[in-house]
Amino acid sequence: xxxxxxxxxxxxxxxRRLGQRRExxxxxxLAPTTVVDTSSTAEPVVGAVVFExxxxxxxxLGSIELGWDGSCRRCLEPxxxxxxxxxxxxxxxxxxxxxxxxxxxxxxxxxxxxxAETVAFALPLAxxxxxxxxxxxxxxxxxxTEAELEAEAAAAPPVxxxxxxxxxxxxxxxxx
Length: 176
What we know:
By secondary structure, this protein is mainly β. The chain has a domain of about 120 residues. Helices cover about 15% and strands about 35% of the residues. Strands 2, 3, 4, 5, 6, 7 and 8 form a 7-stranded mixed sheet that branches. Strand 5 and strand 6 form a beta hairpin.
């Protein structure tokens, strides 16, 4: 039976004075997370965060890096990559159900849920093997890059809102 990963940081000494800081390295083996058709790899999630004491709690700021595997959204070929994600959390004693704060006991912070949530949000939802991937049937479904789409939008005449069409018929010239 596999043990659940643990990354518990004791912040008791840090909370004795406001503004004290401590850097913590992250090297965590998490179970692969899957979002749509993209999964985190089995390699460890690595990074660093800085804990800083604040009134009634601590802030956690830093970043993690992880690998991912998935399928190209156009051609469905395997694709993989690495992504970096930011962690910015506030742990506060007695936070309750406050949506921006995480409740903790004032002594220890468990970073595993924070890292796992960050991993899930960092995975690309619809990766591409390359920006100009033609897809499975490029003749029927041509692809265009962002630059091509922006050029087309700039070249196209602005579309008038049909609700203002009656104003175009008004003659506002002063023929006096």
